From TrEMBL:
This is Aconitase/3-isopropylmalate dehydratase large subunit family protein. CDD domains: IPMI. It comes from Laspinema palackyanum D2a. Signal peptide: none annotated. The keyword Iron-sulfur applies. GO terms for molecular function: 3-isopropylmalate dehydratase activity. It is an enzyme of class 4 (lyase). Its EC number is 4.2.1.33. It holds the Pfam family Aconitase. Keywords: 4Fe-4S, Iron, Iron-sulfur, Lyase, Metal-binding. Residues 18-291, 292-416 form the Aconitase/3-isopropylmalate dehydratase large subunit alpha/beta/alpha domain. InterPro entries: Acnase/IPM_dHydase_lsu_aba_1/3, Acoase/IPM_deHydtase_lsu_aba, Aconitase_4Fe-4S_dom, HAcnase/IPMdehydase_lsu_prok, Homoacnase/IPMdehydase_lsu, IPM_dehydratase_rel_enz, IPMI_cat.
Length: 428
């Protein structure tokens, strides 16, 4: 898939791994943490009156620092946001920032598909490592640096060294309550954080065929934790339905040829997979939850581009209905977008979260990037439905952060320890 997408994007009949090509970018995305530095490099190198190559193909999002000022006023964050808005206004590109005073539109990797910016066959570049999320829609989508994005703004293309592809065939019947987060953590435990470095992870199999779009997004989202440039899933009826519902009707689907060759093929039968947990300090320190032992917690977090989608909130609501979080535990829930929040409210999830004692925050990256409420304090232990648990990633460097699915995080908040089993504690 990756080779065919890059061949089309570069105007070649075919490309091979190791070859360097310039590809035309269909969509460029940046956010409030990086857009201002990109704009500065853009003007420095292309002139003070330079214009982006196509404003309709540039999307800027306020999500990384949107929660910072809930804790304290941060002049740097405010300045970065203001400069991004100024650039968007002067260039006429898309700006997704607030839907009402103090209420952000959402996290870029959930927001762009939701708003119809993403469809199969695209080449997408973003100044964020989790841009690989859009590979779930059959796009070659990857993160780039500040200088590369400044060039994309001006020229509409980027250089890519064609990556080799690893194929992951996921078969079997997934046990009840096992999710995409468990699957990608399992894969991380098998291949490690550098197991796909500079490569593409392509997912297929009976498990993928039955997986809803939001779960596929989780799988592709965390391909970067394996070091991959992109996590690709071939478009099918599930993809078409989602994309058409978001307002896209015309797009080209590209899939792998039946005789395509891969650098390596991994085949996993996931019929007996149990919930997976990543221990600190790396996302690949993964074990089955039955092997974890008793880990008391003080904080739990359900949110981010990985764990704040409607599917994720549904998992949490099912657990928390008619239950209370444990004494001494703080549970933070962050819908990934304003639209997700609205849907969750209509479904009654917000009332369940409030009754359970959880704190629901405004949409944004928040504690996942050590910003705003929900970060871990000194010596605290938490379990998070986010994507990374490096030292200091979501709070104090002395804290310990475990990664798990939204369901496990919700159960753990009720039980007061990392668990996938509900006792009678918290019922009432």
């Amino acid at each position: 898939m990756a080779e065919k997408l890059l061949a089309r994007g570069s105007g070649n009949a075919y490309v091979q791994p190791g070859e360097t090509v310039f590809v035309k970018v269909d969509l460029a995305m940046s956010h409030d943490a990086v857009a201002a530095p990109v704009a500065e490099v853009f003007y420095q190198n292309f002139g003070e009156v330079a214009k982006v190559w196509d404003p309709n193909r540039v999307v800027l999002v306020a999500d990384h620092f949107i929660q910072v000022n809930e804790v304290r006023v941060d002049p740097k964050a405010t300045s970065l946001y203001s400069k991004m808005v100024e650039f968007a206004d002067s260039q006429g590109c898309h700006l997704l920032d607030v839907v009402s005073p103090g209420e952000a539109a959402g996290i870029c990797h959930v927001l762009l598909p939701e708003k119809g910016f993403i469809h199969p066959g695209m080449i997408v570049a973003g100044t964020d490592s989790h841009t690989c999320t859009y590979g779930a829609f059959g796009c070659f989508s990857t993160g780039v640096g500040t200088t590369d994005m400044a060039n994309i703004f001006a020229m509409g293309d980027m250089w890519v060294r064609v990556p080799p592809t690893l194929l992951f065939k996921l078969e079997g019947t997934l046990p009840k309550y096992i999710t995409a987060k468990d699957i990608i953590l399992f894969i991380l435990g098998k291949i490690g954080c550098d197991g796909a470095a500079g490569k593409v992870m392509e997912f297929r199999g009976s498990i993928i065929d039955k997986m809803p779009m939001e779960e596929r997004m989780t799988l592709s989202n965390m391909a970067i934790e394996c070091g991959a440039m992109c996590g690709l899933i071939a478009p099918d009826e599930t993809t078409r339905q989602y994309v058409q519902n978001s307002g896209q009707d015309l797009f080209e689907e590209i899939g792998s040829d039946p005789d395509a060759s891969y650098e390596e093929i991994y085949q996993f039968d996931l019929s007996d997979l149990e919930p997976q947990v990543a221990r600190p300090p790396k996302p690949d320190c993964v074990i089955g939850i039955s092997q974890l032992g008793e880990i008391p917690i003080t904080k739990a977090f359900i949110g981010s581009c990985t764990g704040g989608k409607l599917f994720d909130l549904a998992q949490a609501a099912e657990v928390l209905e008619n239950r209370r979080i444990a004494r001494g535990v703080s549970l933070f829930i962050v819908p990934a977008s304003f639209e997700v929040r609205q849907k969750a409210e209509k479904l009654g999830y917000m009332q369940i979260f409030e009754a359970a004692g959880a704190t629901v925050l405004k949409s944004g990256c928040g504690a996942c990037i050590n910003a705003g409420l929900g970060i871990l304090g000194k010596e605290e232990t938490g379990v998070y439905a986010t994507n990374r648990n490096f030292k200091g990633r979501s709070g104090d460097p002395t804290a310990k952060n475990y990664l798990a699915s939204p369901r496990v995080v919700a159960i753990s908040a009720v039980e007061g320890k990392i668990s996938d089993r509900l006792s009678n504690v918290g019922v009432g």
